[in-house]
Design goal:
Elements: H1 3-35, H2 44-72, H3 74-94, H4 101-125, H5 127-132, H6 134-159, H7 165-185, H8 199-205, H9 209-240, H10 244-268, H11 274-294, H12 298-326, H13 332-360, H14 367-391
Helix pairs in contact: 1-3, 1-4, 1-6, 1-7, 1-9, 2-3, 2-4, 2-13, 3-4, 3-7, 4-13, 6-10, 6-12, 9-10, 9-12, 9-13, 9-14, 10-12, 11-12, 11-14
Length: 392
């Protein structure tokens, strides 16, 4: 490999690595709710507002990240996203309860912007790696994203009784802050030159039935995962009376089930029929959510978490494999647009649960993922049908 190729791969590795910090940012709110004592004074509507502001921040950050890419390049964009995440965590530390809710909403919007910038820069940076192995690159990015979510939950669970809420957030802010310093000090590498595309041309990509189905499928699937991840710790603390640290540990178990399951599915994709994988995944999701709703002990909750997390873990690798096959030519605008829709679903679902829970109670948290699982099955069937009709 020549010098330019090595430098491009170094940029790609940084792009994959930044997904870890994006995962930390996206998973923070679900882990922070017990830390902010919302299990004692549940303000469901404000929780809904919090997820909504985080979602708006992701969308705004995606637009801002595209502007940074055009003007400053990949390295600066990745460093800026990590620095913004560090700043957002410090602001959230300053506005922990009983401080103003509005300050926390502003901090969550800023944290969402940081995730949007990192996602935009990361999806652009992984282009050289994607051109070598499409499916493996997307799966590796997803695994590191999940590892960031797991690390966030484990950190809050392990340190819950040792530090105050502001101290936890300040300590967590050190990770993206250090990453920003590393990215900023990395020598410049050749930028990835992509053809300039007018917004109308980008819009044409979303008129393809396959792109629309992928976006809708990821919207509902990420919505299922995000709904459970955002509310699981709070749900277990209120319904079972578990301590916040124990609930956060079960949240970490959920992220671990997602992470390990996605790695295991990579091995199973070439050995097990995809229809059987899908059927098993849907059954596991439904039984997991039902078990969580009816259980009255930690063992039942652990079984429900493992079933739900394991079932959710199967869907994304199946979809990513289809994406790699149907979109052999990489366009960051298309993929980041599709995944922006997915992340929107991951945050809109828990936001809507906040509003529903204000009227129906926290038990409604387990109903949405069941309905979402059935919608995912219908969309996957439509996607496979579209694929066969296109091939014909």
């Amino acid at each position: 490999m020549n010098v330019a190729g090595s430098a491009a791969m170094a940029v790609a590795r940084r792009g994959v690595a930044v997904m870890f910090f994006s995962g930390m940012s996206m998973a923070l709110l679900g882990a922070a709710l017990p830390v902010w004592r919302y299990h004692l004074h549940p303000e469901y509507v404000w929780i809904g507002h919090s997820f909504l502001l985080l979602n708006l921040g992701v969308l705004a950050g995606g637009a801002g990240g595209a502007a940074l890419l055009a003007r400053k390049g990949v390295g600066f964009t990745l460093a800026a996203g990590c620095a913004l995440a560090c700043l957002a965590l410090l602001e959230l530390a300053a506005f922990c309860p009983p401080a103003s809710e509005w300050g926390r909403l502003a901090g969550l919007f800023l944290l969402g912007m940081a995730a949007g910038v990192m996602n935009q820069g990361g999806m652009h940076a992984i282009t050289p790696m994607y051109e070598r192995d499409r499916t493996a690159t997307l799966n590796l990015s997803g695994i590191l994203f999940g590892a960031g979510c797991l690390a966030c939950a484990l950190f809050f669970s392990g340190a819950f009784f040792f530090y105050t809420a502001p101290s936890l957030l300040i300590l967590l802010a050190a990770a993206p802050g250090l990453a920003a310093g590393v990215f900023a000090r990395t020598p410049n590498a050749p930028e990835i030159v992509l053809p300039v595309r007018h917004w109308r041309e980008a819009l044409e990509d979303f008129r393809q039935p396959a792109a629309l189905l992928f976006a809708a499928l990821l919207f509902f699937q990420f919505g299922n995962e995000g709904a459970l991840a955002g509310w699981l710790a709070l749900f277990l603390t209120q319904r079972l009376g578990a301590s916040p640290a124990t609930s956060l540990l079960l949240l970490a178990l959920y992220w671990a089930a997602l992470l390990v399951g996605r790695v295991a599915v990579q091995w199973a994709l070439s050995r097990v029929r995809h229809g059987r994988l899908l059927a098993g995944a849907v059954v596991a999701q439904v039984f997991g959510c039902v078990a969580l709703y009816f259980t009255d002990n930690l063992f039942g909750a652990s079984v429900g978490v493992l079933l739900a997390g394991g079932g959710f873990s199967v869907i994304l690798p199946l979809v990513l494999e289809r994406i790699g096959d149907r979109f052999p030519r990489y366009h960051p605008a298309v993929f980041n647009g599709i995944f922006s829709v997915a992340w929107t679903g991951a945050l809109l679902a828990p936001a809507s649960l906040g509003y529903f829970a204000a009227f129906a109670g926290v038990g409604v948290v387990m109903g949405l993922p069941v309905l979402g699982a059935l919608m995912v099955v219908a969309l996957l069937a439509a996607l496979w049908l579209e694929s066969k009709l296109t091939a014909a």
